[in-house]
Amino acid sequence: MTVVALDAGQVLDRAGELAELLVDTVDGGASVGFLAPLDRAEALAWWQGRVAGVAAGELAVWAAYEGARLVGTVSLAFPDKPNSRHRAELVKLMVHREARGRGLGRLLLDTAERAAVAAGVTLLHLDTETDSPAEHLYRTAGWTRLGAIPDYAASPAGVLRPTTIYYKQVGVAAVVGGLAGG
User: Fold this and answer.
1) 3-22 CB burial, b ≥16 within 10 A, e <16
2) Which partner for 76 in 13, 60, 109, 139 could form a disulfide, CB atoms 3.0-4.6 Å apart?
3) Which residues form the N-acetyltransferase domain (predicted)?
4) CA pseudo-torsion sign 64, 66, 71, 133
5) How far apart are CA 60 and CA 124, in angstroms?
6) pTM over 0.90
7) Does the structure show a pLDDT above 90 at 176?
8) Residue 167: beta bridge partners?
9) Average of pLDDT values for 157-173?
10) Lowest mean pLDDT among 124-128, 135-139, 174-178
11) Cα–Cα distance for residue pair 119/99, rounded to 1 Å
């Protein structure tokens, strides 16, 4: 597996591959903001809509490849407010159904966490569907469960489901927090 950071041009060039991954993720039941069945054109337009954010530095995108095949992605969304430059949101961690169970989700998560630290981020946060397989990944990777919000978003099947909020201190904040707590 190879994980590479994508610039705006690469996101645009690879939007078709990224769209196929998004369709597979939604068809597989993952709640990533879309209802099933997800039309490929809608998925393509969604990825094309991310290009400006990548170009502006508001969004960082990584793609995981197995050979020449795109099998996963993860992104970090950076806030635009001056009082929140120390944090980022982990978004759209997706692994193709055929590539699951081989540690790719953990590799993508680790990649995003390391990149966050390199960018000076000290706090990460995310939300994920409560009781989804992703919760196990986040818990075992040291993320802290904050709580759940009922009926937060519709699942791909259109059923309202709760979401769980997680956070993780990284970089200097993680070290200082660990020293203060220990």
Assistant:
1) beebebebbbebbebbbbbb
2) 60
3) 1-165
4) negative
5) 14
6) yes
7) no
8) 125, 144
9) 93
10) 174-178
11) 29
Backbone CA torsion sign across 130, 74, 142, 82: negative
Q: How far apart are CA 28 and CA 36, in angstroms?
A: 9
Structural fold of domain 2-181: Aminopeptidase (3.40.630)
Mean pLDDT of 29-47: 97
Can you give the pLDDT at residue 177?
A: 58
- CA proximity to 139, closest of 169, 168, 181, 100: 168
90-122 pLDDT, tens per residue? 999 999 999 999 999 999 999 999 999 999 999
Tokens of 161: 């489901």
As given in the structure block, the two tokens for residue 62 are 């990584």
pLDDT value of residue 172: 74
- Using the predicted structure, report yes or no on whether residue 150 has a pLDDT greater than 70: yes
Edge to edge, what strands does the sheet with 160-169 contain?
2-6, 59-66, 69-77, 87-95, 123-129, 160-169, 144-154
Domain ranges for the chain, please list them: 2-181
The residue type found at 95 is V
- Sole residue written with tokens 């203060």: 180
Token reading at 133 = 């397989």
